[in-house]
Amino acid sequence: MADRSAPSCHLRLEWVYGYRGHQCRNNLYYTAAKEIVYFVAGVGVVYSPREHRQKFYLGHQDDIISLALHPERVLVATGQVGKEPYICVWDSYTVQTVSVLKDVHTHGIACLAFDLDGQRLVSVGLDSKNTVCVWDWRKGKLLSMAPGHTDRIFDISWDLYQPNKLVSCGVKHIKFWSLCGNSLTPKRGVFGKTGDLQTILCLACARDEVTYSGALNGDIYVWKGINLVRTIQGAHAAGIFSMNACEEGFATGGRDGCVRLWDLNFKPITVIDLRETDQGYKGLSVRSVCWRGDHILVGTQDSEIFEIVVHERNKPFLIMQGHCEGELWALAVHPTKPLAMTGSDDRSVRIWSLIDHALIARCNMEEPIRCAAVSTDGIHLALGMKDGSFTVLRVRDMTEVVHIKDRKEAIHELKYSPDGNFLAVGSNDSSVDIYGVVQRYKKVGECIGSSSFITHMDWSSDSKYLQTNDGNGKRLFYRMPSGKEVTNKEELKGIQWASWTCVSGLEVNGIWPKYSDINDINSVDANFIGQVMVTADDYGIVKLFRYPCLRKGAKFKKYLGHSAHVTNVRWSHDHQWVVSIGGADHSVFQWKFVPDRKLKDSLHIAPQESLVDSNSDESDSDQSDVPELDSEIEQETQITYRRQVYKEDLPQLKEQCKEKRKSAASKRRERAPGNSIRLHFVHGYRGYDCRSNLFYTQTGEIVYHVAAVGVVYNRQQNTQRFYLGHDDDILCLAIHPLKDYVATGQVGRDSSIHIWDTETIKPLSVLKGYHQYGVCAVDFSADGKRLASVGIDDNHTIVLWDWKKGEKLSAVRGSKDKIFVVKINPFMPDKLITVGIKHMKFWRRAGGGLIGRKGCIGALGRTDTMMCAVYGWTEEMAFSGTSTGDVCIWRDVFLIKTVKAHDGPVFSMHALEKGFVTGGKDGVVALWDDTFERCLKTYAIKRAALAPGSKGLLLEDNPSIRAISLGHGHILVGTKNGEILEVDKSGPITLLVQGHMEGEVWGLATHPHLPICATVSDDKTLRIWDLSPSHCMLAVRKLKKGGRCCCFSPDGKALAVGLNDGSFLIVNADTLEDLVSFQHRKDVISEIRFSPGAGKYLAVASCDNFVDIYNVMSSKRVGICKGASSYITHMDWDVRGKLLQVNTGAKEQLFFEAPRGKKQTIPSLEVEKIGWASWTSVLGSCCEGIWPIIGEVTDVTASCLTSDSKVLATGDDFGFVKLFRYPAKGKFGKFKRYVAHSTHVTNVRWTYDDSLLVTVGGADTSLMLWTYEVEGHRDSRQCDSEESDLDSEEDGGYDSDVTRENEINYTIKALSTNIRPMFGIKPHLQQKEPTLDERQGVVRGSRPPVSRALPQPEKLQTNNVGKKKRPIEDLILELVFGYRGKDCRNNVHYLNDGADVIYHTASVGILYNVATGSQSFYQEHNDDILCLTVNQHPKFTNIVATGQETQQICQLQLLLFMCGMQ
Predict the structure, then answer these.
(1) Rounded CA separation 362/121 (Å)
(2) Residue 361: count of CB within 10 angstroms of its CB
(3) Which long-range contacts link 982-990 to residues 24+ away (Cβ below 8 Å)?
(4) CB 1401 within 8 A of CB 1375
(5) Cα separation, 986 vs 640, whole angstroms
(6) Which of 93, 345, 591, 952 could link 578 by a cystine bridge, Cβ 3.0 to 4.6 Å?
(7) If you compute the radius of gyration of the chain from its CA atoms, what whole number of angstroms results?
(8) Distance (Å, rounded) from C-alpha 1233 to C-alpha 1216?
């Protein structure tokens, strides 16, 4: 069978022909090294004219459309298009990424500019608001953001003479921005009468608040401040696209093909008309100019770059050419020379020298060109046109040989036969015409078997056969030259093909991804000698496969650079190069082919890093030749942590139930109970799907997690303390290097990470907003300042935090497959590694992004699934444990060796000062020296080694080890089975904590007169737990099936257990040995209950809707209760043992007589009078109040009543344990609520004396004990209880004024323009004579009269230059009556030792001088001020902050201002 692995050779980008001139401007500069930087397609290019050499920046994955050069002229910023576009700042020497700025813009980044000292970068998006963002680019941090304009912005620039000022321009506007704090405020430029309001295309800032801008009509507008002061008319004959400022002055370039140089005062120096020069042509249009010293760089619309030396200005030097705008499809290579021919929709055909990297010939045709072919002798070049004709040229002088038009639709493919006698021409008319070359291209045959357009063709080596592909993916064969179709398979068997460019056929099966449209691979070319082939597809990717490539989903290496579809790809005649062409980016890429042998030398230099795995990458379908995943890992990767409803959805769900709330609020409801519970002890440890989540703290306690609880366990006193800040499953835990703080990450819609102190159990920081669904790995940096986290979203996003500030530093998409571990480099906190399913990646921080490189495995094997990783003794050493039991040793990104460490996966690894410790699925802990050369000692986790002080029993020998940690002379081990063990270095093992294994826990029973309880779970074990202070597991028994219920007999000697296969057992409660077993049902036994008193009867309920009643003494079934329409959920006996109450899944409450099982109908009033032996039911009028408002979404799964019948405890599907007063009559009773379980609480039971409440938590596998605290005993540790859903406001907790203020809605104003009832017509709407301005069509404030946007505050100060006649220049605010007291507080303060009073009213901040009675005003707000505070710090005297309501609802805009200064 053919090899499905990727080829070992690779491609290296050597040259890119072209320059992006269309739809871009100002994208061409000299760097400090006198190299030229520009971009084409998705590649940043640095070209050295001296050496005629190009370097490439490959960090983008779509078209680059904007570029800015740092003032020091080494760093370059580029912005791309795309759904989630980003900005890369990169070094033009090394072409490596320095910083990535992301997660803000959408659609694309239209322009970029650095400020004067290069610390900040401004960017403009292509979104509907053309958002303007200011970045601290080194940190990757957004400093400020504001909507730019309603229409396109074409240019933006910092004012290099005034800090914090920017200017932007675009369609019919220019705006002057000031950056104050984190707020960007624009002022529109006033055109006045000096010039027409028109589109401004480019700008440059000068001294003294002067700005020069280039307009669409070719004029230059000169601005002073925000006013237009003069125009330089006719600077260019058409739009001015580019303006570049340098020490000598300014250079401008326009659509008229001219470059003009101006001095510093914008007086003209000279004009260079490129159209008139030797290289010029009609229609040349300048898009970019850069003037440095005596050199000028010019970029044109048609993808040329000129260099002009000022004193020889009429002899521009052409340094780069490419195809113009229009799709590029035609590509052919010369059969004997290193030449490539391309033809495009720009109607030009061009010949490129692959050795000189230059254009050597160009010829313009009448029609757009769609395909090309060179004859076997290299004399003729045939071109297929879009109109259905084809032309043949002589290669040497580009003169026409023949022009033939036999078809109406485009010619998509042509090929000369190997003997040079025929030309096959395939068109979109679904046919192939054959022409005789020697007969002056006379038509000699026709192939008409296809049902769709012809896409690819190949001749056989003997020129007797032709194979074709068409748009339907059909492959057909024809006999040549007649064109007769061949269908006989025997005849086809021995054919040797002269070339292989077809996309369908057995030899190329493997190039197709598993699910893809037949047309998304545009081109293929096979290199028979090298046994590789190259493909081009619609996603901008060039791929290298082995040839032949027989099996679907073969592996490949992939190369990015083209932005959109790659239309064609060909090997050069000697297979030294691959040439690829891009459709929309109309660029030509030349790749050097590096065969296997040379690879060794080139690879170790440094793989090109990129944000997407660009340089060389394994394929998507890695499943092919990888060993089967270990069962345990496979199970883990299939766990889903998605919830239908998250706790975060509660407020929203309650909001939807508003009507219910109102009706409930009007009724008098029972108070919540006075008694409370407090979490006392938790049995369980989350090992089955977590790793490395168990540590010693500073004080020698042990910290770990289970369910939604962080646990700090004191092993000397056998007590636990709990961090209860989470509200859903915790999935990961990391400890701070000082061992005093812990970070835990949880499941959630917007999941959070909590950093908390293990001593005080108080949260220090909560990080939210970046991870969806959950956080599966966290790690602290060695200095403890940073935290890395990985999410369980589809991209497994990796985030680096400054956790104290709660600030995200960087983020990146990690991997499509699950990531298990993240580790920060202890020596360099900017570097980290992640490991996961077939994933080992080395990351380094670059601004707001992280740049990843895959581990280079080389000849040592393939990427395995990695389960754990640690850093070693130097910054470049790393170690990872694989799913096959090896430890991989890495230096930098290279694998240097592997060591066999365990049988089965290595799940955990811990680095010591001198050496390592590892733990695996084989249940062995191994100690290693510091180079993994020698295994110093191993400890097998076996029952025989358990020390006498253990708090339980080992379920099996050699349990799978999931966490290892060292400290205090011991090794701490966490197992998959939920056990925590302490291994003494001398051998004995102490079991400290244990819980159920993976699987849901439902069965729970408390003993009738001892402090013990029994649990049974889907993990197929029955366990007995001691609830006294010794807190341990007393006994365990493995069952043949999982179980869902259990019950002690009234004397406590027997224990009944219901299993999931419909059978049940009765076992001896002490020894857990069988007494008797039955099976009458096939479905799960859901509840099992002994009758009270002597325990004569046993009721057994199942999910097939029946309850069977057995006589315990005679071991016979004596009755069947029928009539339930759904599965049985709860059962209770009455005190006499004669009546059975049953709840079902359809929320029916039914009653049956025992022992026969006759159905009874009992009115609800009577039910309350009956004495029940227990109450675990959730239906009926006595417990109507336990159902929450959102009862449709969630179920109450369990309840249990205290023996004094006063307090009912419930568990529900949200993971809440609640206490209600009993009876809980009336809807939506009040309660106390406790969170510790993660999702559903499946069962709750009080102990025989009500001293403890025992709860089990379904999938979180934990058993929790809560102490019951009677009212008055109040330990005031009420922190873990919350009051009920319906808050105190409904009990009239508010004074009338407070209620009124609480109901004020500040958002209405923002949504409807008219707030106060008005009479008459507003002055600005009254009919009035049009002013002179309006008659002349000058738009004041340039706002359209009708707008859906909210009215902007009318600015009254318009110092318009052209209005000298008016005597009144301005209005000045003199006095304000009023103070805002109706809905504000603490908003009057003394300043300056009582000399002044500061307060606010309307949108004005007022400073009132007590002595003089005068007022001064702060007027920068544009809406009501709602709050005010004064900075009390002596360093910041007279600083005031005020917050306003704005048109963006609920967004407070804070403005700091100095009092006494306007």
Answers:
(1) 41
(2) 16
(3) 982/715, 983/925, 983/939, 983/941, 984/947, 987/939, 987/945, 988/945, 988/946, 988/947, 989/939, 989/941, 989/942, 989/945, 989/946, 989/947, 989/950, 990/946, 990/947, 990/949, 990/950
(4) no
(5) 41
(6) 591
(7) 39
(8) 6
Cα–Cα distance measured from residue 618 to residue 555, given in angstroms and rounded to the nearest whole number: 6
Q: Give the whole-angstrom CA distance, residue 397 versus residue 797.
A: 57
Annotate 1368-1428 with DSSP letters as a single string.
Answer: --------------SS--S--EEETTTTEEEEEETTEEEEEETTT--EEEE----S-EEEE
The model's pLDDT over 697-755, given as tens digits with 9 standing for 90+, comes to 999 999 999 988 999 999 888 899 999 999 888 999 999 999 999 999 998 888 899 99
H/E/C letters for each residue in 951-974? CCCCCCCCCCEEEEEEECCEEEEE
d(CA 1080, CA 1072): 22
Whether residue 1253 has pLDDT greater than 90: yes
Q: Quick check: helix, strand or coil at residue 1272?
A: coil
pLDDT reading at 1235 higher than 80: yes
Tokens of 648: 């975060």
568: Cα separation from own chain's centroid: 33
Q: Is 275 helix (H, G, I), strand (E, B) or coil?
A: helix
pTM over cut 0.90: no
**Residue 209 contacts residue 224 (beta carbons within 8 Å):** yes
Q: How far apart are CA 749 and CA 1235, in angstroms?
A: 17
- What is the phi/psi pair of residue 1309, to 5°? -55, -35
Please tell me the distance from the alpha carbon of residue 917 to that of residue 967, in angstroms, as a whole number.
Answer: 12
649, 656 in Cβ contact below 8 A?
no
End-to-end distance of the chain based on CA atoms, in angstroms? 83
For tokens 């997690």, what's the residue? 705
> Closest Cα partner for 1393 from 1411, 1405, 1379?
1411
Sign of torsion over alpha carbons 1283, 1288, 1293, 1294: positive
β-partners of residue 331 are 342
Complete DSSP assignment for 820-862: EEEEE-SS-TTEEEEEETTEEEEEEEEBTEEEEEEPB-GGG--
What is d(CA 531, CA 697) in angstroms, rounded to the nearest whole number? 59
Closest CA to 1106 of 1157, 1146, 1068: 1157
Sheet holding 741-757, edge to edge: 730-735, 741-757, 763-780, 786-791, 798-802, 807-812
Q: Which tokens hold the place of 602?
A: 């080139």
Residue appearing with tokens 């159902």: 1187
Rounded distance between C-alpha atoms, residue 895 and residue 955, angstroms: 38
User: Which residue, 11, 16, 54, is CA-closest to 35?
Assistant: 54
Residue of 284, 242, 171, 854 lying closest to 557 (CA atoms): 854
Residue with tokens 């081009």: 536
Separation of alpha carbons 1245 and 1254, rounded Å: 5
Tokens of 1419: 């007027």
Look at residues 270, 304, 272 and name the one whose alpha carbon lies nearest to residue 287: 304
Q: Which two tokens stand for residue 714?
A: 């004191």
pLDDT tens-digit profile of 794-836? 889 999 999 999 888 888 888 888 899 999 999 998 999 999 9
What does the pLDDT read at residue 155? 93
Q: Are 946 and 991 in contact (CB under 8 A)?
A: yes
Inform me whether the pLDDT recorded for 1335 exceeds 70: no
SS (H, E, C) 333-383: ECCCCCEEEEEECCCEEEEEECCCCEEEEEEECCCCEEEEEECCCCCEEEE
Q: Is 745 helix (H, G, I), strand (E, B) or coil?
A: strand
> For the chain, how many residues are written?
1462
Return the half-sphere exposure (C-beta side, CA atoms, 13 A cut-off) of residue 365.
Answer: 30
**What's the maximum distance between 2 C-alpha atoms anywhere in the chain?**
118
Residue 408 corresponds to which tokens in the numbers above? 């109406």
| Cα gap 708→724, rounded to integer Å | 7
